[in-house]
Amino acid sequence: MNAPDELAWRLFLQVNAAAPGVNNALFETWTSDSDTFQLNPAFPTGPSPIRPRPPVIPSGGQAVAAPGISRRKTRAAPLVIPLRPVPPKPDLTGEEVRRNRDAFDFIVKNKLYTVSGLKAAAGKSFSFPPTAIEIKAEWLPVEEIPAFMLNRIALADVPRQFHVNTAADGKQYGLIAMHIITKLVPNWTWDTFEHELNPARCDIIGCNDQFGMPAPGSTPANTSVWMGYGPCLKTEAVRALFASAKWDSAFEHYCLKGTQTDFSDRTGLAIRLGNSIAEKGFVQQSSCMTCHARAAWGPDGKKTSHDGFDENGPPLGAINLAWFWKFTGNPPIFVGMGGLTQTATSADFVWSVARCAYDDTATPPKIPCGEK
Ligand code: HEC
Q1: Can you give the pTM of this predicted structure?
Q2: Residue 353: its pLDDT value, please?
Q3: How far apart are CA 121 and CA 111, in angstroms?
Q4: 30 C-beta closer than 6 A to ligand 1
């Protein structure tokens, strides 16, 4: 908690260490959402090729109505600072979530992979083990990379500067961004990395890394967006870590954009952190911890919000008790008071649990995250 940026880099080395399989990093041998959330969850026994799928989070930060909540007549004002020039269309970014064995075993042991399992678990309290690690990786087909990176790299140089691997569809993809979370602290550690050539890497909210970036440890946002920032300079400390790493040396071309350790600062300002790829279009309205704190399911075993978004867009700051409780009467509100009922169960910050559970209550059963 006192050195979150150093921890983030150590985790980056850990999850990206070389692993069995052609050009595999350790995280690529872990289990994906599609392997986890099915009737018979399976942890891969050998290399399991990546299967990037289209992004889930509503991009552009559009305010959306939560299920069961009707849209107000006056629509919320757009929250987005438009990106100019706009990123290339169509958006070919592919995403994949992977989790380590301890995170997977926890989900299986507690039967959090089916909707009937979530129904049975409603009202209970869950906490993943301290050794749980989950990542979300953002991939781009290799041939798309030069244009996306404003032609600041030639196609032939992509494999040296990007971690590249072959997906299940036989196509080559390059890693452009990565989220890492671990349960080392009760509310998880929140880290996000970007490739140094990502054109919007530090846009709007800047970049902040007190360990890997030379003083002052931050890069202010460009006054215009989507212009690029050039290579990220590295401290001796992070270089020493790199020297000890056994990995695809292309990983040295990634930068820690920032870490989040709390919901708000000591003056009540909401802490924001968002990745220019994963939270594209709403980095200025992104709080990893707040949106993930909203990952929850109702008595029916279904998620209780539209992936964290509501009419005001993504949530910021402290957890809102109305996401989890209904009450009659007047504050103060406390556990044990009359008229307080729990309406949602926390997924311990893990969105996949709330939105990917295999729906065995539907006929035929539905696999919300079953891209194979
Ligand atoms: C507005 C909501 C929102 C914000 C903000 C957000 N996420 Fe997520 N995140 C999601 C949703 C929804 C998923 C599941 C769908 C998917 O895989 O994209 C997810 C998936 C993940 C996963 C895979 C494990 C899981 O929970 O399913 C990780 C790791 C992750 N996010 C990290 C981060 C980090 C780090 C940040 C901040 C830099 C962040 N997220 C910001 C909504 C959000």
Answers
A1: 0.94
A2: 98
A3: 8
A4: no
**What percent of the chain stands above pLDDT 70?**
91
What stretches of the chain adopt beta strand conformation (E)?
31-32, 94-99, 133-141, 164-166, 172-182, 189-195, 207-208, 218-219, 254-260, 296-297, 325-327, 340-342, 345-346
Q: How far apart are CA 301 and CA 120, in angstroms?
A: 8
| Residues 6 or more apart whose Cβ sits within 8 Å of residue 335 | none
One-letter identity of residue 230: G
Q: Tell whether omega for the bond before 130 is within 30 degrees of 0, i.e. cis.
A: no
Query: Two tokens at 160?
Result: 């040296």
DSSP string across 131-155: T-EEEEEEEEEGGGHHHHTTT-S-G
Residues 310-348 pLDDT 10s = 888 999 999 999 999 999 988 888 988 889 999 999 999
Taking the CA of residue 294 as reference, the ligand 1 atom at the shortest distance is: 2
Rounded to whole angstroms, the Cα distance separating 39 from 224 reads: 48
Would the pLDDT of 123 be above 50?
Answer: yes
Helix (H, G, I), strand (E, B) or coil at 166: strand
Quote the pLDDT of residue 371: 66
Cβ atoms within 10 Å of 231's Cβ, excluding its own: 12
Residue 318: CB atoms within 10 A of its CB come to 15
Nearest-atom number in ligand 1 for the CA of 56 is: 18
Query: Which conformational region is residue 45 in: left (phi greater than 0), alpha (psi within -120 to 50 degrees), or beta?
Result: alpha
The Å distance, Cα 11 to ligand 1 centre, comes to: 17
Retrieve residue 278's tokens.
């994963």
Query: Is-contact 207 213, C-beta < 8 A?
Result: yes
